[in-house]
Every structure is written in C-alpha cells, then in structure tokens.
Design a protein that fits this description.
Helices cover about 40% and strands about 20% of the residues. It is of the alpha/beta class and about 325 residues long. It has a domain of about 220 residues: Rossmann fold (3-Layer(aba) Sandwich). β1, α1 and β2 form a beta-alpha-beta unit. α4 packs parallel to α5. The longest helix is centred in the N-terminal third of the chain and has 21 residues. Bound molecules: nicotinamide-adenine-dinucleotide. The site of nicotinamide-adenine-dinucleotide (NAD) has 30 residues, from α1, α4, β5 and β7.
Length: about 325
C-alpha cells in the first residue's frame, strides 16, 4: 500500500514507519515539533519519502496526498502537562489540523483514512471498561482537543462519506518515546543516577500497551476496519503509577529513595480502561507481554544514550 503517515517522525508514527517500510511505500509528513525527530526514521530513511510540513497546511496537503491509498494520522500535540501549561498548539494541531487533513483527503479522493486517537477522550472510569459507544467526556485540554478532532473526523465520515476510521488506544511504551513521558522519563532519570517524580498518591491506573501492538492494530484497521467506525486498542496490563514505578525501580536496580513525591497533576484522570472486542473481531490480538516489552524497552534506553541525551539537554 502507498501510505501517507502524518506525524510519522514521533514516537508511535515512527514505529509504524520502521515496522512497515519493507512492505509498504511510505511518505512521512511531519512538522518536526520538539517531539518530531528525524533520528527516529534513520533506520529506514532510504526507504521512504520525507516531507517536512504541517497538517494545517491545506496547500501542501493538496500536493502530497494524491496517489496515496491510505492516510494514517498520528500528528498531534500529545503531552498532557504541556496542554495544562498552554493549550493553543493542542487545539490548532489536534482539531484544526484534523479538519484540514480530512477536508484535503475528501478533495483528493483518498480511498482510506485512519485517525489515531486515545482512551483519554472518555475522561475517567472507576470500574469496568468503555466500549466504542461511550460518551466523550475529556478532562485535560489535550484530551478535549483529541475529542474535538475525533468528532470532526466522524462528521466527515457521516456528512461527506469520507472513508475514515478512528482508533483509540491506551498508554503506549517502547523505544524512541520522547523522554518527557513517564516510562522514558523515569528510565533515563534512573540511568543517570537521578530521582523520579511521582504524582499525587500514585494510585492513578493506566492500561499499558507496547507500541508494536498498537501499530499492528492501526495497520489492521486500515485494511479491514469499516469507514465511520471507532476501534479500541486496549492495553495488556493495568497498573497504578506506584506499581509501574516499582517495576521500573526493580528493572534499574534502584530503590524507593529515588522517588520524589510531587503534587498531583491538575485534573488528573484516575483510570482509563477500554474494551477491545470490536478490534479483536477483526483478528487482532496483542503479541508483546508486558514483562518482556518493558525489559526490552529499559534495555533500549540503556543502550541508546546518544538518542535521548541531546533531547534531555535541550529540555533542561
Ligand atoms: P509524539 O508527540 O511522540 O509525536 C507527535 C508527532 O506529530 C511529532 O513527530 C510531531 O512533530 C508531529 N506533529 C505535531 N503537530 C503536527 C502538525 N500540526 N503537523 C504535522 N506533524 C505534527 O506523539 P505519539 O506518542 O507518537 O502519539 C501519536 C498519536 O497517537 C497522537 O495522535 C496521540 O494522540 C496518539 N496516542 C498516543 C498514545 C501514547 O501513549 N503516546 C496513546 C494513544 C494515542
């Protein structure tokens, strides 16, 4: 397939690109924000076409889109803490960007579109799991902007017949994740002999999935998903942040003396949980057990300091 991957230089998009560069003909369109990194594409850079650009740029999209069979949209502002500090860029890329991209896909007659989204659009759930019909009730500006983009994408499906499907996934972990997110932040801080900041009482629950399973799910939805439908990609392992921290300390041979308690994130969702029967009916099953995936992820950051050290220095 000829696939245009928007946001393909970020964490998940670049995993998708590295995974499918052999079997698909790939174009990456990425704005290269602080989170977009050409180094993420280096292993496959000779097997793809790279375009630096913004999904809000309709003129550019009109030039790049033709001749692609599929568009997969990973492009977004993604860090909840940054959205609390300032939400403008989030609304621009995650809402206006999605609308601009959907309109451009419609005008180009793109045969298939997948818009990648998150479980955070549903807000927080105490017990049980959401299915795809659950109402959207986002709490953070990040989640609200993602929900806005999802609704725009669905409106283009219903109003214009745009063949777009949406995937909503839990918390991803794996290599090449920008070291502001909890797993790479904690791992790299511990590798540097430093401390890790744990929010509030540490009781917030997240459902973790290896980025490789998420990307296989997105590709499957591109092939077999129905237009206008939403598909959940559930994690494999629910953990409180305390439990996650314990596993990372253990993996790095560190103790609780390295953990600094910090005030809770504003509006911090307590728990996310997705039911993924609809995706499994398409033939999906996760492949990466959490223990192995986490061990490999920790080993990757330990072996790839030249990738993350400059990112942490730039952020300091
Ligand atoms: P990321 O922040 O690592 O990467 C985002 C990429 O999008 C970057 O390369 C950035 O340069 C690019 N980008 C941002 N704004 C753009 C714009 N206007 N035009 C073009 N490119 C732009 O994010 P990620 O963790 O890889 O997440 C990818 C997608 O998956 C996002 O849509 C996110 O909401 C969704 N998602 C992420 C997770 C997770 O745990 N990380 C979970 C569920 C869903």
């Amino acid at each position: 397939m000829r696939i245009l991957v928007t946001g393909g230089a970020g964490f998940i998009g670049s995993h998708f690109v590295r995974s499918f560069a052999d079997e698909d003909e790939l174009t990456v369109l990425d704005k290269l924000t602080y989170a977009g990194n050409p180094a993420n594409l280096e292993p496959v850079e000779h097997r793809l076409t790279f375009v630096q650009g913004d999904i809000c740029d309709a003129g550019l999209l009109g030039k790049v889109l033709p001749d692609h069979d599929v568009v997969v949209n990973f492009a977004a502002e993604t860090h909840v803490d940054r959205s609390i500090a300032g939400a403008d860029a989030f609304v621009r890329s995650n809402v206006l960007g999605v609308q601009t991209l959907m309109r451009a896909c419609l005008e180009a007659g793109t045969p298939r579109v997948v818009h990648v989204s998150t479980d955070e659009v549903y807000g927080s759930i105490g017990t049980g799991s959401w299915d795809e019909s659950a109402p959207l009730a986002p709490n953070s500006p990040y989640a609200a902007a993602k929900a806005g983009g999802d609704l725009i994408a669905l409106a283009y499906a219903r109003t214009h017949g745009l063949p777009v499907s949406i995937t909503r996934c839990g918390n991803n972990y794996g290599p090449y994740q920008y070291p502001e997110k909890v797993v790479p932040l904690f791992v790299t801080n511990l590798l540097d002999g430093g401390e890790v900041p744990l929010y509030g009482d540490g009781g917030n629950v997240r459902d973790w999935i290896h980025v490789d399973d998420h990307c296989r799910a997105v590709r499957l939805v591109a092939e077999r998903g129905a237009p206008g439908e939403v598909y959940h990609v559930a994690g494999t392992t629910e953990l409180t942040n305390l439990e996650l921290t314990a596993r990372l300390l253990d993996a790095l041979g560190a103790d609780w003396g390295r953990v600094t308690r910090v005030p809770d994130r504003k509006g911090h969702d307590r728990r996310y949980s997705l039911a993924d029967g609809k995706l499994r009916a398409l033939g999906y099953a996760p492949r990466v057990p959490f223990e192995r995936g986490l061990a490999e992820t920790v080993a990757w950051y330990a072996a790839n300091r030249p990738w993350w050290e400059p990112l942490k220095e730039r952020a300091a």
